[in-house]
Fold:
Amino acid sequence: MNTPHFVADTGIVRHRHTLADGRDLIYFDDPQTTLAPERAADLRELDPRPATARMRQDPLTGEWVSIAAARQNRVFLPPAHLDPLAPSTPGNPSEVPSNYDVAVFENKSPSFGPLLTDADAPAGLDDLATIGLGRTRTSVGRCEVVCFSPEHEGSFASLSVVRARTVIEAWAERTHALSQLPGIEQVFPFENRGEAIGVTLHHPHGQIYSYPYVTPRSQRVIASLDQYGPNLFGDILASEQAGGRVILSGEHWTAFVPFAARWPIEVHMLPHRHVPDFAETVLAERDELAVLYRRLLRGIDALYDTPTPYIAAWHQAPVNVRRDEIRLMLQVTSPRRAEDKLKFLAGSEAAMGAWIGDVTPEQAADNIRLAVERSAAADTDEAAATAAAAGTAAAFAGKARS
Structure:
């Protein structure tokens, strides 16, 4: 079992609770929060948690598909007064009993879990890699919801810099904690934004999936590492920094449109040093990321007059393999190829995995860079945070740095 070195930000206080059906709930308070430390108990009468789903292997690809039928019953685009992620009220007994800054809890309808071990199957990646007909396993793992704000609408881009930093701390701590659970092979924080992506809640939130296997995408990366060598991520970063598709860069992070971007809007962000996941970032890296990542998403929103739908995927190294080679990486993708047009995955992409780009990566980089600059110039919150950071030893006074 891998045990990464995790440094917590002690200025962001945690409060751990349990929901009425036994699920974990953790509050993460902003530095200098106005909230009282006491939090209400969950007094709802809830049905038992659904049984852990089963997954089936596709023998043509070796991939595992979790059949989580209980997810069919989840809430779909509720009105504000019935928002299940808002702080609970007498008229809306929600998933979060008290007001909060950031809240993390186990998903009520998970794709993986709540079981963490499959008593009827051999453990380990070798068993999962074997190809056969009719192979099934229990979809062990864990799925968590990360509420970015108590507000009914918004996204990561709509947060303050301080709140963005609290969310990033939650990602780092939960990555650390989930990586220690039995049966977990990979941890994946992400945010789906916009109905065009398929979101079922307007509330600003993301999710964290903890998989019982190394995901197909990461297996492809491992195959590329085998072909290229262990310095692949570092060489990609150096190549992009020397090119013309960089969107923004700081002391610790660089964001760029990749050379072979598939989507009309696609931006990657890499840390400058090798970091396998959020748990192994240091506080200075998280501080800068709160400014740069928020700036990037606000710029993507500024491309057009209406908010941009996207998937923000934080690819992390697997828990137990290739951690010294696979680097933490953000991949933001959007199907928006024009103000009123979306790219749909049709025959070539969906059926064959053979992508055809609609916009050159160089033109996309120019468009996004200009939008980021426009957005940043109008962002008084970011300007204040940047000035404060430049005038002190750290963006948040009193922190111990590592």
About this structure: Residues 33 and 101 are 8 Å apart (CA to CA). The chain has one domain: 13-391. The longest strand covers residues 186-193. Residues 13-391 form a domain with the HIT family, subunit A fold (CATH 3.30.428.10).
